[in-house]
Design a protein that fits this description.
Strand content: 5-15%
Distance between the termini: 62 Å
Bound molecules: 1,4-dihydronicotinamide adenine dinucleotide, uridine-5'-diphosphate-glucuronic acid
CATH superfamily of the largest domain: NAD(P)-binding Rossmann-like Domain
Radius of gyration: 23 Å
CATH class of the largest domain: Alpha Beta
Number of domains: 3
Structural class: alpha/beta
Helix content: 40-55%
């Protein structure tokens, strides 16, 4: 099948690469010419394991193309996939300006029948907005709209696509369903066929539910800290119950990233607009915001009367999660400037996200290696669960530091072991050892 993908962010690029790998002819279109030129030269703008290799393979074998000209991408395509960004507006609502611009340019170039499917996460009703804009601009309705929300995770995007657990096909016609069924055939996944509005809602409900699981376990963790229980064991004990499940019960510094924070906000706004006030999701957001700030208090507590001013703190991890360089809504974006305001000398280290972090954190002091970051540090603050941090030799590390204090936002270590090594170790939902 010939496919045109609009937008080469995470979703557009990963989908384009994976669909081409399944034998389709794919052209990815982006208005960002610099990005397109880079992609044409084989330069991938994001860090995502396995993506570059797979992209180069499909380009070489002639199935994957890049262009900044939508007309070129749409020519002969049976399916158009909209995968542009839907960031949050100032008030939390989803900003549909890129969606609308894409719909307009599709309309301007629509000469023959196509299925126009939205993969971007969009509020219920957006499919109908797209339909109207395309037909108004094209002057005809020789097309079908559809919704096929994306569920990939950054850091494991390729695997998540090839082994997708389900596909939601929100359709309005048999013809569109046929095209989307054909697209998903090689993935051998569970298919849920529904209307466009239900498909749009399913994506927000899934993300909000996952965010709820995280905030729920973080609240339990905070209660564990106040009562002396251990959240890791609580989560394990809960997780064996298949109705609850083990996934997404890892207590930590709270969720970040390009989607949970913006999608929970957008869902609340969707409720307001529809005249239904959501109650759980705002609480999930509140817990998440507070969770980050607790780590400043944990540091303050570790230094007692001495206070934070003048202390050197090594922040380990900038990206919002491992195996990505995405800095969108990463805890570090909030915490590094706040610590600096308190007079802390903050030195950061991340295996891949430093360059992107410099774009969003002013005057970021970045070390080139983990060793450099922790040298003479009064404390370490762990924000991302990179493998490199899990494998740190804490015994040797202690010799490099000025003081053996670790505040761990990801529960990477066994408190008993760190206590025995002479550390002050405060993690999440587990007793402090010293
Ligand atoms: N990042 C992720 O892991 C996931 C994202 N999503 C959703 O997918 C959508 C896209 O997300 P990302 O890929 O992260 O977005 P992004 O913001 O990283 O990339 C969007 C791309 O679209 C391009 N673009 C904007 N307007 C355009 C137009 N009119 N024509 C052509 N290109 C245009 C931009 O230049 C940019 O390269 C969002 O709605 C997001 O919520 C869904 C699942 C996972
Ligand atoms: O809509 C999206 O963009 C995507 O959002 C998330 O994917 P992603 O944000 O890439 O990463 P996750 O693995 O879900 O992690 C999100 C955040 O939650 C945190 N998290 C995750 C799991 C957990 O148990 N505890 C926890 O704190 C992570 O550290 C991270 O900050 C969803 O998992 C994807 O299904 C969805 O497609």
């Amino acid at each position: 099948m010939k496919i045109c993908v609009i937008g080469t962010g995470y979703v557009g690029l990963v989908s384009g690469v994976c669909y081409s790998d399944k034998g389709n002819q794919v052209t990815c279109v982006d208005i960002d010419e610099v990005k397109v030129n880079h992609l044409k030269k084989g330069i991938v703008p994001i860090y995502e394991p396995g993506l570059k290799e797979l992209m180069l393979k499909n380009v070489k074998e002639g199935r994957l193309h890049f262009t900044s000209q939508i007309r070129e991408g749409m020519e002969g395509a049976e399916l158009i996939i909209i995968a542009v960004g839907t960031p949050a507006k100032e008030n939390g609502e989803a900003d549909l300006r890129y969606i609308k611009a894409a719909a307009r340019s599709i309309g301007e170039n629509l000469t023959d029948y196509k299925v126009i499917v939205t993969k971007s996460t969009v509020p219920v009703g957006t499919g109908q907005i797209i339909k109207k804009m395309v037909s108004d601009t094209a002057g005809h309705s020789n097309f079908d709209i559809a919704s096929n929300p994306e569920f990939l995770r950054e850091g494991s995007a390729i695997q998540d696509t090839f082994q997708m657990e389900r596909a939601i096909l929100g359709i309005e016609s048999d013809r569109a369903e046929k095209v989307l069924q054909k697209l998903h055939e090689p993935f051998q996944t569970k298919i849920v066929v529904t209307d466009v509005e239900t498909a749009e809602m399913t994506k927000y409900a899934a993300n909000a539910f996952l965010a709820t699981k995280i905030s729920f376990i973080n609240e339990v963790a905070n209660l564990c800290e106040a009562t002396g229980a251990n959240v890791e064991k609580v989560a394990e004990g809960m997780g064996y119950d298949q109705r609850i499940g083990k996934a997404f019960l890892q207590a930590g510094i709270g969720y970040g990233g390009s989607c949970f924070p913006k999608d929970t906000q957008a869902l609340v706004k969707m409720g307001e607009k529809a005249g239904y006030r959501l109650k759980i999701v705002p609480a999930v957001e509140e817990v998440n915001k507070e969770q980050r700030l607790r780590f400043i208090e944990k540091l303050r507590y570790a230094f007692g009367n001495e206070g934070l001013k003048g202390k050197k703190v090594a922040v380990l991890g900038l990206a919002f999660k491992p195996n990505t360089d995405d800095m969108r809504a990463a805890p570090a974006v909030d915490l590094v400037p706040r610590l600096e305001q308190e007079g802390v000398d903050v030195v950061c280290y991340d295996p891949v996200a430093t360059e992107k972090a410099k774009e969003v954190i002013k005057n970021l002091q970045a070390a080139a290696t983990l060793d450099q970051a922790v040298k003479d540090a009064d404390a370490i603050l762990i924000l991302t669960d990179w493998q490199e941090f899990k494998e740190m030799n804490v015994k040797l590390l202690k010799l490099e530091m000025k003081r053996p204090i670790i505040i761990d936002g990801r529960n990477l270590f066994d408190p008993i072991k760190l206590g025995k090594l002479g550390y002050y170790y405060a993690s999440v939902g587990r007793p402090i050892v010293q």
